[in-house]
Amino acid sequence: MLSFFEQVQRAGGLSRRQFLSAGAIGGGLTLARLLQAEQAAGIRSSHKAVINIHLDGGPPQMDMIDLKPQAPAEIRGEFGPIATKIPGVQICEHLPKLAAAADKFVFIRSLVGASNQHDAFQCQTGFDAKNLASIGGRPAMGCIVGKLQATAADVAPPFVDLMQGRPLVRNSARPGFLGPSYGPFRPDISQMFERQLEDKMIVELANKGDGHTTALSLSQELSQSRLQDRTSLRSGLDRLRGQVDRSGMMDAVDSFTKQAVGILTSGRFAAAMDLMREDPRAIERYTMNAASNDPPSTTSDRPNATLKFLLARRLIEAGVRCVSISLSDFDTHSNNFGRLRKLLPILDHGLTTLVADLSERGMLDDVSIVAWGEFGRTPKVQPSNAGRDHWPAVGMALLAGGGMHTGQTIGETDRYAGAATSRPVTYQDVFATLYNRLGLNARGVTITDPTGRPQYLLDQGEVIRELI
């Protein structure tokens, strides 16, 4: 009897769909083995993609990439600058790996135009939540990519939202006027990564009811053969509706139709979500050794959050086009420096490991990465609690990959890091650049809204010329 790999090598013109169906029937394949088998068969899944990292709460620009060591103590805070691989550029001492790999990154120090809302909506769309709200609002980038670039033959969803905390509770990655059929796949990762919610967020999430996440496996009431036969599925819908709806399966089928069938029956996406199927050496590489045993703040991510970056890589490798993850909690109204001493090393290790890993796999030019938050934080440290408050006037962003010209800084701020003094960059400028890397002209491509009017992907914003 032929082994699975021998069958693949003899498959010749086997289509991706046929190949993946064969893999599902064979069972027991890890994602790594599946990818290896695809490569042996000459079936490649190289595609342009985006990883959007939300620094939940609003990252403090002056404590991370725009330090002001000459400013008064109440402005410069407790952290010192260190040199980076870019001559003359310094960043925070708690980001040493980022400093060593600075030539792989773009440091935007002049991000402006924040809507001052405590969610990730603007970081997902480029727009204020009020824009086109009367017809459903603007869709998240991943939803647009699903509309324009996904096909029914895809065996991974185009957009996967893994954000926790505020972005999850406030449904930041929503399809807007495109409607629920273009919403993201939103697996529940709370058992993998602890992120406790504040009391208000718990109430907000409870008010949304069930169905806020997406099931990744078949309901017991639906066999694989029945799912693949949509006619049969429809004929039995009335009898199954009560029990199946509670599992969320019908919502998935109604939203994603043929694509959902392929996703759920191939097993590829679920395999990508299972970190136990990853090479232990990769897990070890992404795992950060905590510097101390002191617990982080209640709502902050734990050191194992570095594995979110590995999960994002696995999903892109499995065919997902946009992945959003979050790192919490940068909402440092109190104990800003104590909390950042825990958070910044997580970002430092996870982000630099991701970029190095993608580069070694030959994927970095195809995958654009952005890390940013909903606004910056106040230049002045509050003397009563050592915190920094919300500051929408200017913020920061990090970019990498996507074939962009890295190893540079964009923009400058005043001596307090409180206002952009040169080269202001808007959220829509960043999105225009990300769309460009995906092969989409955001000011030239339109999608039709529910009223029948064409809407450009962005109504403002220009590609950041220094990066292309």
CATH level 1 name of the largest domain: Alpha Beta
Q: Major β-sheet, in short?
A: 8 strands, mixed
Distance between the termini: 52 Å
How much strand content do the residues show? Answer: 5-15%
What's the count of strands? 16
Instruction: Name the CATH superfamily assignment of the largest domain.
Output: Alkaline Phosphatase, subunit A
Question: What's the tally of helices?
Answer: 18
CATH fold title of the largest domain? Alkaline Phosphatase, subunit A
Give the structural class.
Answer: alpha/beta
The appropriate CATH architecture of the largest domain is 3-Layer(aba) Sandwich
Query: What Rg do the Cα atoms give?
Result: 22 Å
Tell me the number of structural domains. Answer: 3
Low-confidence stretches: 1-32, 41-45, 218-223, 230-235, 237-245, 247-256
Let me know the average pLDDT: 85
Percent helix range = 25-40%
Shape: globular
Kindly describe this structure.
The protein has 468 residues and is α/β, with parallel strands linked by helices. The protein has three domains: 1-44, no CATH class; 48-196 and 267-467, Alkaline Phosphatase, subunit A (3-Layer(aba) Sandwich); 216-266, no CATH class. Helix content is 35%, strand content 14%. The chain has 18 helices and 16 strands. The protein has helices at 4-9, 16-26, 31-40, 73-76, 96-100, 121-125, 141-149, 166-169, 199-207, 224-228, 230-235, 237-247, 249-266, 268-273, 280-286, 306-317, 336-360, 427-437, and strands spanning 49-56, 81-83, 90-92, 105-112, 159-161, 322-328, 367-372, 376-377, 390-391, 395-401, 408-410, 412-413, 420-422, 425-426, 446-448, 454-456. The chain is globular.
